[in-house]
Write a structure and sequence with these properties.
144 residues; SH3 type barrels; nine-stranded antiparallel sheet; three-stranded antiparallel sheet; globular
């Protein structure tokens, strides 16, 4: 019997790689989250419950001083049929005039692995530039 609902995780092309061949920053981020993993699957995009997340998109993860933090998706990580994201964190300042957030890289350049459950909202955001500033406009109010 066919299902009327989308599967929880859909991934197109996946590469199975050993942690030994990955960049040190990526390897360290994965080892912090998954201690005993030797190989992982990497993808450039994933569809979670019908929402597509791709490399280069931004997601809202965590907060600082009452403002949401954002992270850029660098790679999609699949471990044990569970998707997560290798991300680079950004700080945000709300710009009233543009009704969006201006993003700046956080001082620590450490990469992180973020699970979908850690996101403030499930809508991925496409970044854009305004007068040399990196901006994102959430479609909804972000609770954090």
């Amino acid at each position: 019997m066919p299902s009327l609902f989308k599967p929880p995780v859909e991934v197109g092309s996946v590469s199975l790689v050993s942690l030994d061949i990955l960049d040190n920053a990526v390897k360290q981020a994965i080892r912090l989250k998954y201690k005993d993993v030797k190989t992982v699957s990497l993808a450039s995009s994933v569809i979670l419950h019908g929402t597509k997340y791709s490399e280069g998109m931004f997601v809202s993860v965590g907060s600082t001083s009452g403002l949401p933090d954002f992270a850029k998706i660098l790679k999609v990580l699949i471990v044990g049929n569970k998707a997560s994201f290798i991300v680079e964190r950004f700080s945000a300042w709300y710009m009233d005039h543009f009704r969006c957030y201006e993003l700046t890289r956080k001082l620590s350049t450490d990469l992180e692995v973020a699970d979908p459950e850690e996101l403030n909202n499930f809508s991925p955001l496409a970044p854009y530039m305004v007068q040399g500033r990196l901006m994102v406009s959430p479609k909804v109010f972000l609770l954090h």
